[in-house]
Design brief:
mainly alpha; single chain
């Protein structure tokens, strides 16, 4: 007898089955809801990056800014890139620290039901085991492997904005005759530290 047929023989009475199955379907609806919200936020992050680059391109190549002092154009460009990076960082935190944790909370309730009632499909349990195996092999469970992969997207988009910020800030300081090498290194180091802290904070596994 197959495992599926064995589970069919262990099905409970109709009332219990209907109640449990309604809860499982509700968990699935909530999981799809939060997953869709996270997809929307990642789309907003991409749009935010494109808007940042578009604004910088307007300052550099628009006919309306041709008569403006290049020092101010480079300064404004660096400020726009910094604000763009801050905006993507906020979306990053909202996505992985808020909505992803809500998604995990619903997922865990569905997994508990699968452990409690062995006649339910083991979908969430199998997904959990696969994710934990891939995460523990390198990070020993200190990071959520799913959030780690999602965070790499935000690392890429934020890095583009921060690199552009460092570039235009160095250009501006070079125009003003300041010690631009020193400040360029400081801005790059500060950007790297911020990215590192955000990555580890947003990918830490829930205890």
């Amino acid at each position: 007898m197959s495992k599926f047929a064995y589970k069919l023989r262990q099905l409970p009475d109709a009332n219990l089955f209907n109640h449990v199955w309604d809860i499982v379907k509700e968990c699935g609806d909530e999981e799809r809801h939060f997953n869709q919200l996270q997809s929307v936020y990642r789309g907003i992050a991409s749009t935010w990056l494109l808007a940042t680059l578009g604004a910088v391109g307007y300052l550099l190549f628009s006919k309306d800014t041709r008569g403006t002092d290049p020092r101010y154009i480079h300064l404004f460009s660096s400020v726009i890139c910094l604000l763009g990076a801050c905006g993507i960082g906020l979306i990053w935190v909202l996505d992985l620290r808020v909505y992803h944790r809500l998604l995990v909370a619903v997922f865990e309730e569905g997994r508990k039901l699968e452990n409690e009632f062995n006649w339910l499909p083991r979908i969430r349990s199998n997904m959990y085991n696969l994710g934990r195996l891939s995460g523990k092999s390198r990070f020993k469970g200190t990071l959520d492997p799913i959030r780690r992969m999602l965070a790499m997207y935000y690392v890429g988009t934020t890095t583009v904005s921060l690199l552009a910020f460092c570039f235009f800030l160095s250009w501006h300081l070079q125009d003003t005759g300041a010690h631009w090498h020193r400040y360029s290194v400081l801005s790059c180091v500060a950007s790297a530290v911020v990215l590192y802290c955000l990555f580890w904070w947003t990918t830490a596994a829930d205890v």
